[in-house]
């Protein structure tokens, strides 16, 4: 990656578009929020659409971050910095995307289940999903089934994400899924679960669509499941 000291005297506005996009990928990787915001504004000023900036500069940059996170080259603190830089760009792009009516890839509600107050992993998934072009509604921690039902009614998501970090709170995921089944709503949504004590067997046993061992896998799984849903 680019040496951080080189960035200080790098004039982003002097770079041609393709080099600027490459530099933004590096800056995202290095978690440089201000540079990402500057690059975003430069590309918009050159007549790029908000969705083109999102796809080419930000989503592609976060895809690289996601791969290196999955492969153990980057770690949680670094990915959080990248996600924060991405958010800086998104703050500029989101109102423009809303104006043009650009559709997100899909919509997700995500929360840690009742009794569990862990949120770093869940927040990382939310940020990475947003970085991949999804609209994400983060319900926070300690969510009873009512919170999920309210959010489903209000936001009409494609995906429901549940997180648990304690073996004692894991079974609550089944409570949420069973409630969706009872209400005849289960098949309307892609249900993804994650958290340290979970595994694929548990995910299958409670009736979730997939277990995601980390944020990068969650993004890949969500993209694949959305493609299946659209094809169907």
Please render the helix and strand layout as text:
Layout: H1 4-8, H2 17-29, H3 33-45, H4 50-70, H5 76-100, E1 107-113, H6 120-131, E2 135-143, H7 145-155, E3 159-163, H8 172-182, E4 190-194, H9 200-206, E5 210-211, H10 215-231
Parallel strand pairs: 1-2, 1-3, 3-4, 4-5
Architecture overview:
By secondary structure, this protein is α/β, with parallel strands linked by helices. It has 10 helices and 5 strands. The chain has helices spanning 4-8, 17-29, 33-45, 50-70, 76-100, 120-131, 145-155, 172-182, 200-206, 215-231; strands at 107-113, 135-143, 159-163, 190-194, 210-211. Strand 4, helix 9 (200-206) and strand 5 (210-211) form a beta-alpha-beta unit. The longest helix is centred in the middle third of the chain and has 25 residues, at 76-100. The chain is elongated.
Specify the number of helices. Answer: 10
Structural class: alpha/beta
What is the N-to-C succession of helices and strands?
HHHHHEHEHEHEHEH
User: What best-fitting shape do the alpha-carbon axes yield?
Assistant: elongated
Question: How confident overall, as mean pLDDT?
Answer: 92
Runs with pLDDT <50, length 5+?
A: none
CA-based gyration radius: 19 Å
- Count every beta strand, where a strand is a DSSP E run of 2 or more residues: 5
End-to-end CA span: 41 Å
Largest sheet: 5 strands, parallel
In helices, the fraction of residues equals 55-70%
Q: For the largest beta sheet, what order do the strands appear in spatially?
A: 2-1-3-4-5
The proportion of residues in beta strands is: 5-15%
Which labels suit this protein?
232 residues, 10 helices, 5-stranded parallel β-sheet, alpha/beta, elongated
């Amino acid at each position: 990656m680019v040496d951080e000291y080189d960035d200080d005297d790098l004039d982003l506005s002097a770079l041609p578009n393709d080099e600027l996009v490459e530099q933004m990928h590096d800056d995202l990787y290095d978690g440089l929020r201000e540079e990402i915001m500057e690059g975003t504004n430069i590309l918009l000023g050159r007549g790029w659409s908000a969705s083109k900036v999102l796809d080419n500069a930000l989503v592609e940059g976060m895809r690289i971050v996601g791969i290196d996170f999955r492969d153990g080259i980057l770690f949680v603190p670094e990915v959080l910095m990248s996600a924060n830089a991405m958010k800086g760009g998104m703050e500029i792009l989101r109102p423009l995307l809303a104006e043009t009516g650009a559709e997100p890839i899909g919509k997700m509600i995500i929360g840690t289940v009742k009794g569990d107050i862990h949120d770093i992993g869940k927040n990382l998934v939310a940020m990475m999903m947003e970085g991949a072009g999804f609209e994400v509604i983060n319900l926070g921690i300690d969510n009873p089934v009512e919170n999920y039902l309210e959010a489903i009614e209000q936001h009409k998501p494609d995906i429901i994400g549940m997180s648990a970090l304690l073996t004692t709170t894991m079974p609550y995921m089944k409570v949420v899924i069973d409630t969706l089944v009872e209400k005849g709503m289960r098949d309307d949504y892609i249900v993804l679960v994650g958290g340290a004590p979970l595994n694929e067997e548990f995910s299958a046993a409670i009736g979730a669509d997939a277990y995601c061992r980390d944020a990068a896998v969650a993004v890949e799984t969500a993209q694949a499941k959305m493609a299946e849903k659209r094809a169907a």
